[in-house]
């Protein structure tokens, strides 16, 4: 049976889909059965009337239990069954009780639907869907007839008409009997036999006596004129029902026409898929044969080597057996010779004895010499046959079906609160479908995998601070995975990332310092001001540091940031400083402030030894000429390497790390300096955090500082 009705939109819809093919559209998402009196939710999804009541009842029970004794475990009331749905409806209608919860989750889109105070009565019945379900039921029943509701068995007749006003089906005789000519019933609307009866017109759920004759474009639902005049749709844009009918019908017809017009394209794609499947089967069989041939050759080679080794071992056994046989045979010969010699000794005639004994003595001497020079014919140890096949096993395991493994690019990967891991493929790699990145903590052997990655980098979120993680990646092509890349480990910072840029407002020297547009890199140039100060340098004055700070301060918590100092830099000082110290720095003239009298200048001035005994509102360490200079240790400071605390200045000079990290623990009044690549603490000390602390940098001569992009992408 085909979907009834004429073509839509003057021939727009020509193809009719058999109604049996639309069953999936007629199933309630809750009860998984054909719709029964479906209601339209505000989100335009339909649900059976009984299913909506059950959802509302369930939410009512949850709300009732949450605030009553019945929700307490072990309470006697918890075993009392909840009130029936009929009782609940009765209580609601009588006004004795109002459900506390009127919101239900839509099973189609999972959005919460608030039914308001009137609950289910606010929802429209989906009469169109009811009609389609009824036509589907009739098609499913096929030849099963609808019987007359008036005739009584056993003389019950098949119905020929159904009255939409009486909501009953009749045979011809009963219809004439109950709808006689000249009576009001003769004017009733009748249709073919059906079990689906619905009102002639759609009534407004808010105003039960009013027909819906308009369409609210805001709420996308039919409304009556009272809804428009003073109801909830008073300020909404509405249109006439005929106009909405025409517009929506044209849109639906065009959409259906578009789907039907794509049928040929879909069929072409299916044909192409069939061709690809056939081609895949042929290529798969060929690949299977070639794989069998390759592995058979490997098996044959291994079998040949195995046979050669077993033959060599067997030859060693045979050598010992032959040697033993020869010795045993010689022993028998010597035994006869000894017996013969003993008989010769019994000879008393001297001439006869001498005649025989001379030759016998030569034979006995030869036998004696052979016993003295005994050597085994072979080595009983089989060490040369003990094979180390670990390399071969590794090669066999690395037989790659999915291409060469990718390699994690350590230099472009960064790990902070989250990890940005980059990798690269070999130049001759085949195209890949996707990649999978896996990671784990070193003290936890469980690997966790990201979702499929279609680029050459991935982000891993929610990493624990001050922890070491291992990462590996592999590629997938045609459902075949490559081997894993070699593992690469990173250490997360000891504190959350502190993001800031260089400040171009507070004390920034435009004469000597150059900021890039992003304000994440600052460069010091030995320019005109430096040259003009040359005479003062010769006369004993010094060129001061040009300071620059971060644009964000710290007043609590633990924070970490990282940066890179270019190796060619002459002198760069990095660390933290309070707002009070910054005012002093930026107030002093730069051409008179000597680094010799800067407490933490990195020079052995002697004054810094005294100042280290007290907590200062700043801490700076010196980098330059490819070196990092650790300040002298004291009771208030500590260094990770015990050798650095000695008085030998050579022990206080380290190679400059590629990246340096700073961690400020404001609450503990402590600052730490790290090698940002290995997260090894190079130096720590106490600092006075009485005010707002800022990341601070000082540059003298040529130099450059590049802030790390904490949330970088490859």
TrEMBL record:
<dbReference type="InterPro" id="IPR050617">
    <property type="entry name" value="E3_ligase_FN3/SPRY"/>
</dbReference>
<dbReference type="InterPro" id="IPR013783">
    <property type="entry name" value="Ig-like_fold"/>
</dbReference>
<dbReference type="InterPro" id="IPR017903">
    <property type="entry name" value="COS_domain"/>
</dbReference>
<dbReference type="GO" id="GO:0007051">
    <property type="term" value="P:spindle organization"/>
</dbReference>
<dbReference type="InterPro" id="IPR017907">
    <property type="entry name" value="Znf_RING_CS"/>
</dbReference>
<dbReference type="Pfam" id="PF13445">
    <property type="entry name" value="zf-RING_UBOX"/>
</dbReference>
<keyword id="KW-0862">Zinc</keyword>
<keyword id="KW-0677">Repeat</keyword>
<dbReference type="InterPro" id="IPR000315">
    <property type="entry name" value="Znf_B-box"/>
</dbReference>
<dbReference type="InterPro" id="IPR003961">
    <property type="entry name" value="FN3_dom"/>
</dbReference>
<keyword id="KW-0863">Zinc-finger</keyword>
<feature type="domain" description="RING-type">
    <location>
        <begin position="28"/>
        <end position="110"/>
    </location>
</feature>
<keyword id="KW-0833">Ubl conjugation pathway</keyword>
<dbReference type="InterPro" id="IPR013320">
    <property type="entry name" value="ConA-like_dom_sf"/>
</dbReference>
<keyword id="KW-0963">Cytoplasm</keyword>
<dbReference type="InterPro" id="IPR047066">
    <property type="entry name" value="TRIM36_Bbox1_Zfn"/>
</dbReference>
<dbReference type="GO" id="GO:0004842">
    <property type="term" value="F:ubiquitin-protein transferase activity"/>
</dbReference>
<dbReference type="InterPro" id="IPR047065">
    <property type="entry name" value="TRIM36_Bbox2_Zfn"/>
</dbReference>
<dbReference type="GO" id="GO:0008270">
    <property type="term" value="F:zinc ion binding"/>
</dbReference>
<feature type="domain" description="COS">
    <location>
        <begin position="345"/>
        <end position="402"/>
    </location>
</feature>
<dbReference type="GO" id="GO:0007340">
    <property type="term" value="P:acrosome reaction"/>
</dbReference>
<dbReference type="Pfam" id="PF22586">
    <property type="entry name" value="ANCHR-like_BBOX"/>
</dbReference>
<dbReference type="InterPro" id="IPR043136">
    <property type="entry name" value="B30.2/SPRY_sf"/>
</dbReference>
<dbReference type="InterPro" id="IPR001870">
    <property type="entry name" value="B30.2/SPRY"/>
</dbReference>
<keyword id="KW-0479">Metal-binding</keyword>
<feature type="domain" description="Fibronectin type-III">
    <location>
        <begin position="405"/>
        <end position="495"/>
    </location>
</feature>
<dbReference type="InterPro" id="IPR036116">
    <property type="entry name" value="FN3_sf"/>
</dbReference>
<dbReference type="InterPro" id="IPR027726">
    <property type="entry name" value="Trim36_HC-RING"/>
</dbReference>
<feature type="domain" description="B box-type">
    <location>
        <begin position="199"/>
        <end position="241"/>
    </location>
</feature>
<dbReference type="InterPro" id="IPR027370">
    <property type="entry name" value="Znf-RING_euk"/>
</dbReference>
<feature type="domain" description="B30.2/SPRY">
    <location>
        <begin position="480"/>
        <end position="714"/>
    </location>
</feature>
<protein>
    <submittedName>
        <fullName>Tripartite motif containing 36</fullName>
    </submittedName>
</protein>
<dbReference type="InterPro" id="IPR040859">
    <property type="entry name" value="Midline-1_COS"/>
</dbReference>
<dbReference type="InterPro" id="IPR001841">
    <property type="entry name" value="Znf_RING"/>
</dbReference>
<dbReference type="Pfam" id="PF00643">
    <property type="entry name" value="zf-B_box"/>
</dbReference>
<dbReference type="Pfam" id="PF18568">
    <property type="entry name" value="COS"/>
</dbReference>
<comment type="similarity">
    <text>Belongs to the TRIM/RBCC family.</text>
</comment>
<dbReference type="GO" id="GO:0001669">
    <property type="term" value="C:acrosomal vesicle"/>
</dbReference>
<feature type="coiled-coil region">
    <location>
        <begin position="263"/>
        <end position="290"/>
    </location>
</feature>
<dbReference type="InterPro" id="IPR003879">
    <property type="entry name" value="Butyrophylin_SPRY"/>
</dbReference>
<dbReference type="GO" id="GO:0005856">
    <property type="term" value="C:cytoskeleton"/>
</dbReference>
<keyword id="KW-0206">Cytoskeleton</keyword>
